[in-house]
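Data deposition worksheet. Section B asks for the primary sequence of the deposited chain exactly as it was used as input, without tags or linkers unless they were present during the calculation. Section C holds the resulting structure in token form. Section D is free text for depositor observations; keep each observation to a single sentence. Incomplete worksheets are returned to the depositor.
Section A, Depositor: J.P.
Section B:
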Amino acid sequence: MSVPTDFEALYGAAPDGVWAAPGRVNLIGEYTDFNDGFVLPLALPHTTVAAVSRRDDGVLRLHSADADGGVVQLDLDALEPLSGGGWAAYPAGVAWALREAGHTIGGADVHLASTVPTGAGLSSSAALEVVTALALNDLFGLGLTRPELARIAQRAENAFVGVPCGIMDQMASACAEEGHALHLDTRDLSYRQVPFGLAAEGLELLVVDTRVKHALGDGAYAERRAGCEAGARALGVRALRDVDAAHLPAALARLTDGTTLRYVRHVVSDNDRVARTIALLDAGATREVGPLLTEGHASLRDDLRVSCPELDLVVETANAAGALGARMTGGGFGGSAVVLVDADRAAPVAAAVRAAFADAGYAEPGVFPAVPSAGARRL
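Section C:
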């Protein structure tokens, strides 16, 4: 069954339109986005698809092919932040955030289906938010730009759902282009599409889903965000992006709290890794990005402490099997890793990772190529 056909079966009429928004994987620059820093994500071919019809009676009806239960019916005027609601809180939060920002929307019937793996650190929540925002923007003629839609989606997750995420995931889903990575300055949302033609260079970027589910609402993410903000206050800067890598040793010498010091060291060094990666990509030296990925993983593992044994095993095994570099991606505590590899080594590296997981008694990981894909769009 197709999403529009399922919509019609649910609601008794064809949808007004169908939209899609992708998940993302982040090449480099982790936990930098809420520090006003730099990131380099790319959109995946995996998408959340929404069939939507406009309503004008203040009713929001939501259904997901991927969740148990029937249609969730909500009154726009009664939406309250942090009121729970499971998956439906994400699209409901978008409607709430649009109205909070002064935009007039009258309600909608929505049916959703997604191929973005959940809990894998690939931004299934951002895809859900962005596809809802884009559909409502189009149906109600709001005229919002892609960055503005990303801000609405982020506000939905921050203020309505209660996850203090940065802006990277929503911007990647809203603004990415096929064949490119998105070099994003999260302070002003300026961005550049960076050509990322892996196949032309005989390379692949593998995503390894450890199948370890993370839940960023459990406080670990919020604790690290608070620690980074404490570091910025201690150093007298607006955000950690304002600490230059060249001045990092002097900055660290001013910090007395060991945890804060580790967090600051990770963020400043990862911003620098983004800059170094961009320079390599612009020079056509994509192969040389590999060691920066591995360096970034060590920082996430040792300074930010957001890795887990399964992610560490992916990185160690892939590199030992001949990968150019690897690192965990996303919020951590499970989820996925990225592996940069020569195309003719992709299958042996994937096999080595699967064998290592079997030997360790872990569930078999999912492995697939990250193909830089298009951002959100009307189908």
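Section D:
The chain has a mean pLDDT of 95.
The first strand starts at residue 17 and ends at 28.
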